Amino acid sequence: MEPELAGFMRQYLNVEMAFSSMERLKTTIGRSNPVWGDDLRRWFTQLFEGRDLTRGEYCELTWVEFGTDEEMYAYLEKIHAFLFLDQGEFPLPPD
């Protein structure tokens, strides 16, 4: 996984941020910093292709726990769809 994507997860998908400010993040990615948005899209694509992140590693970055890697990837795919495909609302992480 790209170190920059890990940094993004640590900063924006952590247990506290994942519940707030996602609309602002979407605007920032799309309008204020399109180059960063392009990089982030590429990093997500690489993550989905390689599936080299485990739920344990994700928890270490974000303090968000998933029961399985599949549940975590489904959640990350929803985040990707929200940020880049204008699909749905930002998904909330599990309690």
Description:
It is globular, with a radius of gyration of 12 Å. It has helices at 3-12, 22-32, 34-50, 55-62, 69-85. By secondary structure, the protein is an all-alpha fold. The model has no long low-confidence stretch (mean pLDDT 87). It starts with a helix and ends in a 10-residue tail after the last helix. It contains five helices and no strands.
Describe the biggest sheet?
none
Beta-strand portion reads under 5%
Low-pLDDT segments: none
Q: Helix count, per DSSP?
A: 5
Q: Compute the number of strand runs.
A: 0
Mean pLDDT: 87
Taken from the alpha-carbon principal axes, the silhouette is: globular
Percent in helix: 55-70%
**Roughly how many Å apart are the termini?**
25 Å
Which class do the helix and strand fractions yield? mainly alpha
Give the radius of gyration. Answer: 12 Å
Oligomeric state as shown: single chain
Order of helices and strands: HHHHH
